[in-house]
Write a structure and sequence with these properties.
Largest sheet: 10 strands, mixed
Protein name: Asparagine synthetase B
Number of strands: 13
Radius of gyration: 21 Å
Mean pLDDT: 93
CATH class of the largest domain: Alpha Beta
Structural class: alpha/beta
Strand content: 5-15%
Number of domains: 2
Helix content: 25-40%
Distance between the termini: 27 Å
Shape: globular
Low-confidence stretches: none
Length: 394
Amino acid sequence: MDAETQKNHLKAYGITYWTLEKQLKVKWLLNYRGGAFLLPDTQDIQRECQIRGVDFEVISNSKAESILEEISSPSKNMEAVVLEKAPKIAVYTPKGNQPWDDAVTMVLTYAEIPYETVYDEEVLNDGLLLFDWLHLHHEDFTGQYGKFYRNYKTAAWYIQDKNEAEALAKKLGYHKVSEEKLDVAKKIRDYVIGGGFMFAMCSATDSFDIALSAEGVDICEPMFDGDGSTPNYQNRIDYSKTFAFTNFILERDPNVYEFSSIDMTQKRQIPKTTDYFSLMDFSAKWDPVPTMLCQNHTALIKGFMGQTTSYTRNEIKSNVLVMGENKTNGEARYIHGIKGKGFFTFYGGHDPEDYTHRVGDPKTELDLYPTSPGYRLILNNVLFPAAKKKKQKT
């Protein structure tokens, strides 16, 4: 899985998942040749690699033992983690076509990793209990319809989205979309606390935390929910209810395409040509979880924008791990935390291979980016629940 000898990193994750589905175990060799996978040598696996265009090497048992011995050396920042079971994957996404694409569903499809879609009804009916891993699609859990009001209030897709959201909330017994989305967010919170793994990107990250923090407070203006917001609602925000963020200031203006001070999009002073973020270097033996989530063939990842591009560094809770950051701009791009018995990862930006991906833009063709480091981070998270759990040291 290094840069030199693997021409399709993304499909290699699919091969690993496919192997796990066959009830075979895989060793993930952290920090060894870009995070290589050690698979059993069978004709079926070799043939599947050839069909999917994934590079592999056949090695002897003695060579494998030699590699594992090297990895186990205390002087090497490496570790071999056993992957035991293919995780069952859910993607939280509305049923209709959205005017934007989702990086996670695109890369799962490209890597040929199966997933099921769920939305509010399934979540509220405890449908998440069937899954090991949940991705939150581009979503607004605050009931403000993505803060698209100023630019898209007359667009057919915006009007339809609002009407469908209101109809669904009414069907489920709620007076407001914001109330229904809050209950969805709380169900997702409980899923994580109970041991689930939640991965979110773009606006699903900060809007999720904001919704939890505003429980019992109306932060929606009349164009969103038909009545006024709670007076002085900023002072009633409860940061203790969030997963990752604290001390943020909400954006009150409905015409501003922004939820809060968490997001750095409007505060960034980085030209596209120099927009990169770096992955942190963790101890593979002592901190295998963040090491796993940061496996890559490069430590420098191209930046990319989104409604929520990155996170203000000093508004991240102290118990949340920053795994990728742009230090010069004081922003975090990729963060991870533990909640109860479960885990969550937030990844800023919309599409790792489309710098400014706007509403209505064509989707990214991953055939053009089979070695994408930015997309590899997503797939690290997909495989993470398959790992045999070891207690994290930090």
